[in-house]
Each structure stands twice: as C-alpha cells, then as structure tokens.
Amino acid sequence: MNAKSGLRVVVTGATGNVGISVMKALAADESIASVLGLARRLPALSLAKATWGSVDLSQPESAGALRSHFTGADVVVHLAWRFQPTHDPVVTWQNNVAGSIRVFQAVREAGVPALVHASSVGAYSPGPKSEPGVGEDWPTHGWPDAAYCREKAYVERVLDTYELEHPYIRVVRMRPGFLFQEAAASEQRRIFVGRFVPGPLLRPDLLPWVPDLKGMRFQVLHTNDAAQAYLLAIHGDVRGAFNLAAQPVIDANTLGAQLGARVVKVPGNLVRTALSAAWRAHAVPASPHLFDAVLRLPIMDCGRARDLLGWYPARTAEEALDAFLTGVRRGTGAETRPLAGQRVG
After folding, report:
1. End-to-end CA distance of the chain
2. CA 9 to CA 73: how far, in whole Å?
3. What average pLDDT does the structure give for the chain?
4. CB 80 within 8 A of CB 98
5. 0.85 cut: is pTM over it?
C-alpha cells in the first residue's frame, strides 16, 4: 500500500446483505483508495470509489478472473455465499465451498497480503445456550445435517490448512450471529419464509403469541455494525477469528415483549414436523435441518472483538431485529438484485 494512495480492497459477494453494508463502509472511509465489488450480477448502484465486476464462483473458469481482479489488492474480503437451493446441496457446495477455495487460491496467486473471510456462528459445534458464551476456540464442526453449517465448517477446515501453508497471508475469520437490516428484509423473507408470504402479515396484532421452544436462544447483529467490524479488521494488524453479536440474547420472552405477544411453550418436535412437511412440499425454502441447527447454536462471547478490534455495536439486538421486521412489513429492498424489495410473491 502506498501511504498517499490508501488501500485497495476487493469484496466478493458485494451485493448481498453484508456485502452492501461493507461496500458503503469502505466507500465512506478516507483511507480506502478504491474498492472493487464482485458479484454474479452487476448492480445498478453507484458508490464513491467503487467499481463492480461480475464473477460466478461456482464455475471453475472463475479462477482466472479472480486472480486478475485480486492483482494489486491490499485486502480481499470474501463474503459470497448462497443459501439456496436447500433441496440441492450440490449447487450450494459448488459455490460456497469450491468457490471459497478458488478465492483463497487466487489470493495466494495474486500476492494479496490479507484475507478477511465471512464465517458464521453456524460453523460452531453445538454448545451452551447460557452467557457469557463460548470463545473463538470452541470447536467449529457445525451441525452436520444442515448444509449451511456443514459448508461453513468445511471452509473453516480449509482455512486451517491454508494458514499453516501460507503464514505470510494475514487471515481473519468473522463469526457473526444472525445479521439483520431493513434493506435486506425482503431478501431474507424470500430465503427463509418464501416469496409467497406477504410481509404485511408480520404485524404484531396478527401475531398473538410467540412459541417458546427449548434451545431457541440466538444472537443478532445489525449488518451495519458487522460492516464496521470488517472495516476494523481490514485496517488492523489482527489475525484469527472474531465472534460478533449485539446484546441482548434473543429468546421467546424478548420477542414476546417486542411484539406485544404472549409467550406459549410449544414442543419442538411439533414445529419441526410441520416445517419438514412444508419444506418437502416446497412450500417454504428453510429446511428443518437448519431449524435443528439453530436450536443447538452456542451463545458466543464477543470479548475478543472488543479487546483486539476495539469494536462495539452501535445498535442493540432488539433494534436490529426491529429493523428487519419493519423492512419485511414495508417490502424494503436495495439497489441490487439480491436485496430488491418485494412485498408479495
């Protein structure tokens, strides 16, 4: 990096939920000279200092394009990830695992000195639901029955070997909880609930009760706060993994209070049976295997991010969740294909 010219950063998956927030954070940072956003589909979005490139990580021929895009970069931020189709895990594996390996190889071949990879709480093995939570040394074997967790965990193993073989590359792994913002609400509704569920139905007065399931405690973070953690990792001389989440931990009581709804204990097997039937009928895209994983995800301790990055989320978990619910009801979106707003179907 030239001290006068600033950093050149390349971001994969630049038009998704996290990608768009990271791109905006980089564009607003004076020490960033330029940022190249890579995605399967080019967006109709203009950002200061940003250019866009098209690449499909699931295709073997993307390796050459990645090397070309990465040449001269100071940092590569790897965010690209596909959640669907959940009924065809080969497709997601080709993009998420094989594509990530191509990114890592291209980083090495292009001589990029730093790689920041988007892992997830989903990479963690089942663990305690109580606070203060697990540190970054908790096993990352995921929940093997869920494709998302299985793929996140496999990429963690790839990076273990990668770091040993290439110690001169600074590797950072971000492990956030569930990431929400208003602009991504329509995308997330389509991914997890389906495109035919009207967003306006998610009104507090139409949700008279909230199910209280054993193990249903999870952590949430506003995507813009996650983007600030990425920015700190780009600038800092840090390595290793960082847990990212806001307070408080979300549970049925928190949801009930936020929605003004009564909390009712419900057997988990009853919910899973209904979800499994809907998934097999292709009525909802979220698989019952992911439901199983969520009930087993550990609560994370985010002290390392505070101590080494100096990172503190500006929004509470409740504010992040409220932004998502507001976006779902309004059909909010952004100027990229993945985040495009859509009220119904």
Report:
1. 47
2. 6
3. 87
4. no
5. yes
